[in-house]
């Protein structure tokens, strides 16, 4: 089963990369850009057909390795 994990910074954590992209876009003339948030996507291929089991395993992987729970949040899509 394919599981998609979207990892992003928690609200209030400075997103330096997002700010740099925002400034670069404005410098290129895209004044409509009001903000940029960055993150990453991780796609897992799990050996199970049970959606709840896949979600639980993905959550465990996030807590142990894929995300830093101090500064990052994650969303799991099964």
Description of the molecule:
The chain is α+β, with helices and mostly antiparallel strands and 78 residues long. It has one domain: Mth169, Chain: A (2-Layer Sandwich). Helices cover 36% and strands 27% of the residues. The protein has helices spanning 16-27, 51-66, and strands at 2-9, 39-45, 72-77. Strands 2-1-3 form a 3-stranded antiparallel sheet, with helices on one face. It is elongated and about 50 Å long. The termini are close together. The mean pLDDT is 97.
User: Count of DSSP helices?
Assistant: 2
What is the CATH homologous superfamily assignment?
A: Phosphoribosylformylglycinamidine synthase subunit PurS
Terminal-residue CA separation: 8 Å
Percentage of β-strand residues: 25-35%
Order of helices and strands: EHEHE
3D shape: elongated
Biggest sheet details: 3 strands, antiparallel
CATH class: Alpha Beta
| Cα Rg | 16 Å
CATH architecture: 2-Layer Sandwich
Examine the coordinates and then state which fold CATH places here, giving the name of the CATH topology: Mth169, Chain: A
Runs in which pLDDT lies below 50 for 5 or more consecutive residues are: none
Q: Secondary-structure map with pairings?
A:
Blueprint: E1 2-9, H1 16-27, E2 39-45, H2 51-66, E3 72-77
Antiparallel strand pairs: 1-2, 1-3
Keywords:
Mth169, Chain: A, 78 residues, 27% strand, elongated, 2 helices, alpha+beta
């Amino acid at each position: 089963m394919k599981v998609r994990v979207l990892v992003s910074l928690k609200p209030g954590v400075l997103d330096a990369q997002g700010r740099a992209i925002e400034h670069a876009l404005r410098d290129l003339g895209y004044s409509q850009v009001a903000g940029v948030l960055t993150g990453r996507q991780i796609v897992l291929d799990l050996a199970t057909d049970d959606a709840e089991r896949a979600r639980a395993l993905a959550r465990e992987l996030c807590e142990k390795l894929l995300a830093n729970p101090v500064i990052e949040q994650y969303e799991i899509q099964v």
